[in-house]
Design brief:
117 residues; mainly alpha; 3 helices
């Protein structure tokens, strides 16, 4: 009976800990960002912003994927969790990149985007 209680306790604890594991970068959705900030940008400025955001997304994606891999192998008790600064910043940059894309489309800019993050 002690083994059953121990097993149930471990299962209950895992239920609360496992959702905190870091996600792969590809699973993180961009935050909603207003295009208002980018409405006055020229096409050249939008292209430069796209490049800046794409670079940052690439760097943060590598960090996020590294955390997700670590969490997978280290186990739930050593997990980084979904609330990390990297996760939040990655979602922010992805949302900003989407806003830049929308602003570029509205201006009919030939902006090349990297939304395949």
């Amino acid at each position: 009976m002690l083994n059953l209680k121990s097993s149930l306790l471990i299962a209950a604890a895992a239920t609360f800990v496992l959702p905190g594991c870091a996600q792969k970068a590809s699973m993180i959705v961009g935050e909603k960002v207003s295009t208002y900030r980018y409405e006055e940008y020229t096409c050249t400025q939008l292209q430069k912003e796209t490049e800046r955001l794409s670079t940052n997304i690439g760097i943060l994606s590598a960090q996020q994927d590294q955390m997700a891999t670590h969490d997978q192998w280290a186990g739930p008790l050593l997990a980084h969790g979904n609330g990390s600064g990297v996760t939040r910043k990655l979602a922010q940059y992805k949302g900003e990149l989407e806003a830049v894309e929308i602003a570029g489309i509205r201006k009919d800019c030939p902006v090349k985007l990297s939304l395949g993050y």
